[in-house]
């Protein structure tokens, strides 16, 4: 007998959105004005991890790359909580992101480095650079919605590309992250209340990096389509002279959606859907 | 009883006891891949049972025709060769959602014990390794026949092993419970001495 929680739409959209929405407010309420504002974004990681556990129950010890993902996100969340609690400098967050990115790639691909071909060795530094650039952009614009929009649409793009050519479960995980970020962002539009601090940045980027690595190295996902998501890292440049708190996020979102549409459309055209319709 | 008789009795007893050991030695058999198969059956949404097979596998068989309990079988299955006669579904089954063939290219079965239960039946116990997880499984073994090939007269043997495993025990959780947890396995083998 199936329950509501077995429904993929609930697992990867409704539940993470609602959980994130509730947890954001709850964290602010419980932790007070000082810590609550800084740590409210932990709702993204917490709701994502909860829903990820529904999609695929945690396994210890983890064997596959998908089973390793929640442990990586937990590590990123703990680092982020430490950085935000102590209000550490941006440089520390950068170093933390670099360590997490290397750990993610190393753990997922560990033992297979001798089997990686030339194309793979070109992709690895690109993945690392994308993670570092994403963190840099998110931190530079942490007092706006730009970083959250970037990460949300990156989740959407990766999820759609995973569904089209690779793995429905990975698609679900990516959409769950997208919904978790969305729940947090709803608190910040049109009035900005909470920054997208280190906890959310590190956990979300680590999850996206892990998913991207899995897609590129362990599935038949379209690498070109994933590459076409790279311009998302520059969407915060759109309308940068527009300081309207309500309008600017709309412009940035529009640009990000356009980038996503091109990437997903490319994946659709180049690879036949393999995980649905049968 | 005199010494001569005693000696003769001892010799007879020794020859009888060693005769059983000499005949009980397992012999290496080669699998006839054209007449061997690994198939499975799983429930889909409660409406149908879907069949599939693995196109590529290999194995080692040491068979003792006189005492099957001395026999050993190992089977290595290429998970990327999963075939349900539907291209898109085959791709999905090989993906990280199910067999994750890119990370776990092989599924293996290694027998640990065979217990005779009847004239041509036995319990085949062994370790099944799937998605990096090893679990003991017990299959019902039937010795279909042991004897000469009807045309070329070469000795051969045929077996069928059946059983049910829960895929969730190996970490294959995607689609539960809509796609069944219990998977019925059948391994059919035809083999002849190397």
Keywords:
heterodimer, A: 278 residues, mainly alpha, B: 194 residues, mainly beta, Lipocalin, eight-stranded antiparallel β-barrel, 11 strands, 15% helix, globular
Number of strands of chain A: 0
| Terminal-residue CA separation of chain A | 22 Å
Give a short account of the largest sheet of chain B.
8 strands, antiparallel, barrel
Ends apart, CA distance between termini of chain B: 48 Å
The rounded Rg of chain A comes to 18 Å
Low-confidence stretches of chain B: 5-23
Q: At CATH's second level, what is the architecture of chain B?
A: Beta Barrel
**Structural class, judged by helices and strands of chain B?**
mainly beta
Strand content of chain A: under 5%
* Proportion of residues in extended strands of chain B: over 45%
- Count of the domains of chain A: 1
Number of strands of chain B: 11
Secondary-structure map:
The complex is a heterodimer of chains A (278) and B (194).
Chain A lengths: L7 H32 L2 H14 L9 H21 L4 H20 L8 H23 L5 H20 L2 H18 L12 H21 L4 H5 L19 H24 L8
Chain B lengths: L2 H21 L3 E5 L5 E8 L3 E7 L2 E7 L8 E7 L3 E2 L3 H8 L11 E11 L4 E10 L2 E16 L6 E12 L12 E15 L1
Antiparallel strand pairs in B: 1-4, 1-11, 2-3, 2-11, 3-6, 4-5, 5-7, 7-8, 8-9, 9-10, 10-11
What can you tell me about this protein's structure?
- The complex is a heterodimer of chains A (278) and B (194).
- The radius of gyration of chain A is 18 Å and the shape is globular.
- The mean pLDDT of chain A is 91.
- In chain A, helix 2 (42-55) runs antiparallel to helix 3 and helix 7 (168-185) packs antiparallel against helix 8 (198-218).
- Chain A is mostly helical and 278 residues long.
- Chain A is built from 10 helices and no strands.
- Chain A has one domain (4-270).
- Chain A is 71% helix and 0% strand.
- With 194 residues, chain B is mainly β.
- Chain B has a single domain, classed as Lipocalin, CATH 2.40.128.
- Helix content of chain B is 15%, strand content 52%.
- Chain B has 2 helices and 11 strands; from the N terminus they run αββββββαβββββ.
- Chain B has helices at residues 3-23, 87-94, and strands spanning 27-31, 37-44, 48-54, 57-63, 72-78, 82-83, 106-116, 121-130, 133-148, 155-166, 179-193.
- Chain B has an 8-stranded antiparallel barrel.
- In chain B, strand 2 (37-44) and strand 3 form a beta hairpin.
- Mean pLDDT of chain B is 88; it is low at 5-23.
């Amino acid at each position: 007998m199936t329950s509501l929680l077995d429904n993929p739409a609930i697992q990867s959209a409704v539940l993470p959105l609602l959980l994130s929405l509730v947890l954001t407010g709850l964290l602010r309420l419980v932790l007070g004005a000082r810590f609550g504002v800084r740590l409210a974004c932990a709702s993204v990681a917490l709701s994502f991890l909860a829903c990820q556990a529904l999609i695929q129950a945690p396994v210890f010890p983890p064997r596959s790359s998908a089973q390793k993902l929640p442990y990586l996100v937990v590590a990123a969340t703990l680092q982020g909580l430490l950085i935000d609690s102590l209000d550490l400098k941006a440089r520390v967050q950068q170093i933390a992101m670099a360590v997490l990115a290397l750990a993610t790639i190393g753990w997922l691909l560990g033992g297979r480095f001798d089997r990686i071909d030339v194309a793979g060795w070109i992709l690895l530094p690109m993945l690392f650079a994308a993670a570092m650039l994403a963190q840099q952009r998110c931190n530079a614009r942490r007092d706006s919605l730009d970083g959250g929009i970037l990460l949300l649409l990156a989740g959407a793009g990766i999820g759609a590309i995973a569904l089209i050519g690779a793995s429905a479960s990975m698609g679900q995980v990516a959409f769950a992250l997208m919904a978790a970020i969305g729940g947090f962002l709803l608190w910040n539009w049109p009035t900005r209340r909470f920054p997208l601090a280190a906890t959310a940045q590190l956990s979300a980027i680590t999850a996206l990096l892990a998913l991207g690595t899995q897609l590129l190295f362990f599935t038949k996902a379209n690498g070109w389509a994933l590459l076409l998501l790279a311009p998302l890292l520059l969407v915060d440049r759109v309308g940068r002279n527009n300081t309207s708190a309500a309008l600017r996020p709309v412009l940035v979102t529009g640009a990000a959606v356009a980038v996503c549409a091109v990437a997903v459309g490319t994946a659709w055209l180049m690879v036949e859907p393999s995980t649905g319709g049968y | 009883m005199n010494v001569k008789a005693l000696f003769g009795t001892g010799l007879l007893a020794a020859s009888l006891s060693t005769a059983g050991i000499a005949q009980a030695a397992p012999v290496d058999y080669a699998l006839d891949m054209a007449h061997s198969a690994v198939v499975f059956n799983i429930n889909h949404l409660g409406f149908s049972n879907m069949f599939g097979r693995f196109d590529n596998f290999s194995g080692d068989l040491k068979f003792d025709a006189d005492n099957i309990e001395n026999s050993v079988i190992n089977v290595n299955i290429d998970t990327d060769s999963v075939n349900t006669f539907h291209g898109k579904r085959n791709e999905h089954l090989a993906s990280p959602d199910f067999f994750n063939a890119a990370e776990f290219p092989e599924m293996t079965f290694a027998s640990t014990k065979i217990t005779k239960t009847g004239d041509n039946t036995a319990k085949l116990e062994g370790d099944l390794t799937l998605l990096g997880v090893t679990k003991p499984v017990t299959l019902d073994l039937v010795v279909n026949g042991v004897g000469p090939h009807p045309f070329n007269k070469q000795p051969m043997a045929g077996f069928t092993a059946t059983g049910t495993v829960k895929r969730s025990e190996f970490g294959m959780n995607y689609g539960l419970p809509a796609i069944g947890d219990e998977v019925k396995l059948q391994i059919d083998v035809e083999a002849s001495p190397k």
